[in-house]
Design goal:
Elements (H helix, E strand, L loop, with lengths): L12 H18 L14 H7 L1 H25 L7 H27 L4 H30 L12 H8 L1 H13 L3 H14 L15
Helix pairs in contact: 1-3, 1-4, 3-4, 4-5, 5-6, 5-7, 5-8, 7-8
Length: 211
């Protein structure tokens, strides 16, 4: 039987964050693969570039969204003193969602103007974003139950941060519902949700570090 992993054998928050940074960096870089150089005759380049606007929109939206996720991820782990199995596996789920975004972005961009297929593609895109936002809720909820994992100055933060994070999965579910009626409108709703999280949650007051 394998030995139970002790806290001493678990990676430090810094190592976990470094691993996450690597995965996020790869995901955000892969987005550019959907931007293609048009293979057209001379004189038709301008039109061909304009026709690729969904790809530009998808790239820009997901690049900014992943960037916002990275900032919020950094804010979260900057407050953790040590980790146990809960944050480890929740973080893997979060990275799973982020790693799917190059695919779901490409899917949404390619089919955005395609009627029923476009609606399906944007619903899938909303689902991948909702998975990430739901994992943020799970992480903050776990830390609310285990405040001893946090730095002393941030042990009152998780409940407030969890309530704010709940906006994400709810809003992305609404966006998915909108996408079943209109793919472009559902995609635009995803942009609005991402914009809501541009400013990471920071409490107005925190406890002072013990001296």
């Amino acid at each position: 039987m394998a030995a139970v992993t002790s806290d001493a054998e678990l990676p430090s928050p810094a190592r976990l964050e470094a691993f996450s940074d690597g995965v996020i960096a790869i995901a955000i870089t892969l987005l550019v693969l959907d931007l293609k150089v048009p293979d057209v005759r001379e004189g038709a380049l301008g039109m061909a570039l304009r026709q690729q606007w969904p790809a530009y929109l998808g790239f820009t939206t997901s690049f900014v969204t992943i960037g916002i996720m990275w900032v919020n991820h950094h804010v979260l782990f900057d407050r953790i003193e040590r980790v146990d199995g809960g944050p480890l596996f929740a973080n893997l789920t979060l990275l799973l969602g982020i790693a799917t975004l190059p695919f779901t972005t490409s899917l949404a961009a390619r089919w955005l103007r395609a009627g029923d297929d476009g609606r399906i593609a944007v619903v899938v895109y909303c689902f991948s974003l909702g998975l990430v936002s739901a994992t943020f809720v799970a992480l903050w909820s776990y830390l609310a139950r285990r405040p001893e994992l946090l730095l002393p100055s941030h042990q009152q933060l998780p409940q407030l941060a969890r309530r704010r994070a709940l906006v994400g999965p709810i809003a992305y579910a609404v966006a998915a519902g909108i996408a079943t009626l209109s793919a472009p409108t559902g995609f635009a709703a995803c942009v609005v949700v991402a914009a809501y999280f541009i400013r990471p949650h920071r409490p107005r007051e925190t406890l002072k570090e013990p001296t």
